[in-house]
Design goal:
Layout: E1 4-7, E2 10-12, E3 18-24, E4 31-36, E5 43-48, E6 54-56, E7 64-69, E8 74-79, E9 88-93, E10 105-109
Parallel strand pairs: 2-10
Antiparallel strand pairs: 1-3, 3-8, 4-5, 4-9, 5-6, 7-8, 9-10
């Protein structure tokens, strides 16, 4: 079974930046970052193909950048100009594969 391990979350002030990392135990196809705030549905934030084509939710366009290193089975999410509404648990996954969710990493944006 593939395992996903997210890291890099933390507490940051509005306007600050964080970079999240996701390690998978073996290579996958399209990878994506999702987030889920308490009491809300999980939402797709960004996705990237193996060829590095990207798509972003409108709420993060211009602020977040998804990238990947296929040799290391890593995917990253660089988050700039963070806002309180970005606060959530962030998860990575492969939308077109059946992969168990990891533990996620908490991002809290607060003054």
């Amino acid at each position: 079974q593939v395992q996903l391990v997210e890291s890099g979350g933390g507490l940051v002030q509005p306007g600050g930046s964080l970079t999240l990392s996701c390690k998978s135990t073996y290579g996958l196809g399209v990878m994506a970052w999702y987030r889920q705030a308490p009491g809300k549905q999980r939402e797709l934030v960004a996705q990237i193909t193996r060829g590095r084509n990207t798509n972003y939710d409108d709420s993060v366009k211009g602020r977040f950048t998804i990238s990947r290193d296929n040799r290391e089975n890593m995917v990253y999410l660089r988050m700039n100009n963070l806002k309180p509404e970005d606060s959530a648990v962030y998860y990575c996954n492969a939308p077109y594969d059946l992969v168990k969710w990891g533990q996620g990493t908490q991002v809290t944006v607060s003054s």
